[in-house]
Amino acid sequence: MKLCYLDGEFLPFEKAVIPVSDHIIQRGIGVFDLVRTYGRRPMMMTYHLERLSRSASSLGIDEKLGLEAMKSLVRQGIDKMEGDGEVLVKFYITGGDRFVDGCRFPDPRYFVSFEDLVLPDRENYEKGVRLFPLDRARLLPSAKSIDYSAALAKNSVDPGALEVLYCPGGVISEAGHSTFFMVKDGKVITAPDDMVLAGTTRSLIIQILEENDIPLEMRAPSLDEVSSSQEAFISGSVKEIMPVVKIGTQTVGDGKPGPITAKIAELYRQNVPRWLE
Amino acid sequence: MKLCYLDGEFLPFEKAVIPVSDHIIQRGIGVFDLVRTYGRRPMMMTYHLERLSRSASSLGIDEKLGLEAMKSLVRQGIDKMEGDGEVLVKFYITGGDRFVDGCRFPDPRYFVSFEDLVLPDRENYEKGVRLFPLDRARLLPSAKSIDYSAALAKNSVDPGALEVLYCPGGVISEAGHSTFFMVKDGKVITAPDDMVLAGTTRSLIIQILEENDIPLEMRAPSLDEVSSSQEAFISGSVKEIMPVVKIGTQTVGDGKPGPITAKIAELYRQNVPRWLE
ipTM of the predicted structure? Predict the structure, then answer.
């Protein structure tokens, strides 16, 4: 089952259409955010929707609906989903039809899709995944824009890799769809806020590390450090914490998921109930 | 009047809609190209549509319509436009609904809009324009992707600037919607093919420079050279050749449009008839 909210009403996903005049189609002006449920309760919804609002603002989109109305839409949609399985919510705000020089998108469209949550293959967690390094950074790292053209175009080059890894000038910032973490000499290393999307799961992991006295270094690791690192992992709302065992042709540690990644993944799952709304 | 071709038929632009499931909406997977007319004849149509096809391919979109069918659509649309004014054609290819891991978009949608051509204000040519430098490069410089989020987001920072100027690491590659040229010590300087979109107007200017013995240097100039440059200009199908008099806070030459820019603009206009189809 797949449902969509658009322009004030809920309708089957297949019936939801947007005019070609909308700037999300004309010029890629659109932002989105994901919310997933655990036990049908949305996880960190407020955080996700606040980030969505900031993403909109950084693209010049006037978000007018407000946090409470957006939260209400998410709850309504989840309630309308049949069965008792988990739900994945994708909340989009588009640039709309009008562009005011100077420069705002004053009439955004809102659409929200609701679908059954599909989790990544278990094998990704058991064996770890490979990332494809790319000497580029996203243009607006703080915004969750819809532009995933570079993140998806990698597949024609290296379809075996799970995601791209943005490494502008050889320095690792973030993965195409995830936050990146390296484990080296007992420390967990991840890029600072100004280089990456402020990942929800990322912020929860940082909190867990602090609470459990696991040392954190907030800096962008370099690609040259991969060979001397012990572990690496990526994080995201849906994938949670997933081990990385290869970056391009370089092997991470002994090429197997490691104990610190496993420990953080376990702590993350234990803490989930704290963050449900 | 504004007309659209979509899914096999011509219809009023306002009636053309695309399902939210299309990857152009979901993940910014879409490419486009512009064709303008002179005397109702399309300018460099073959070049533009071949580039469109390459852009699609670099995003993993399977373009199946082919060049002749695309050309025929452009001609049909121009014929359907009322009056005898000039026409601006925007040809889009979307990622479509289906994504095949590995990774292709096998079912693209095609839509083409036809509208009355609106030229930039005369003042831009008479006084020259200002660009807003950005320490970034487009992620896929060779593709004309729909992603203009960075190019448009600049407006909230500096609405007075006409376009952004991509300057990764202080080196000037291209403008947000145009090719960039600097004139220094009697030479015209522009970034090489692998750093920028292969602009149609850019290639015609290069041809004109060669035919008229105006020296060309194919390298990316640095932002530090702006203060010692005599002139600068940007080029594009619609704007043709437009003088640039300021980049950020730096003034180009004496802050007025210069004679070499004017000469190239004049040569360009004289040569237009050669490139009509």
Answer: 0.89
